[in-house]
């Protein structure tokens, strides 16, 4: 007996409602199972209010917030890649290693970007 895809039968607001619920399930699962996502989420809880103090214009505040949200999004994508690779096999394989390394590199680049944005904003705020 095959399971039917609930998205095929849902349309309109019902589909949006269920997609939203599944999205929250994903966020809660990531928080529960991924320590890096937990750490970055806790930092985001501190950084989001700080962005409203640090940013002098709505654009600066938006860029600060975007950099924080981007870290969380890329971490979720990296966790998804790792979950799919691990689901397939725990045996070492060059392509599996590359996929995980690419995901890790994406998170690293995003963290460097976020740090750079926040560093420049702090420099601008504190130097003047």
What letter string, H or E per element, gives the SSE order? Answer: HHHHH
Under the CATH scheme, which architecture of the largest domain would be assigned?
Answer: Orthogonal Bundle
Largest sheet: none
Instruction: Assign the CATH topology of the largest domain.
Output: Helix Hairpins
Strand content: under 5%
pLDDT < 50 stretches: none
Task: Identify the notable features of this structure and list them briefly.
128 residues, mainly alpha, Helix Hairpins, 2 domains, 87% helix, flat
Give an overview in words:
- With 128 residues, this protein is mainly α.
- It folds into two domains: 1-33, no CATH class; 35-127, Helix Hairpins, CATH 1.10.287.
- Helix content is 87%, strand content 0%.
- The chain is built from five helices and no strands.
- The chain has helices at residues 6-9, 12-33, 35-54, 58-88, 94-127.
- Helix 3 runs antiparallel to helix 4 and helix 4 (58-88) packs antiparallel against helix 5 (94-127).
- The mean pLDDT is 93.
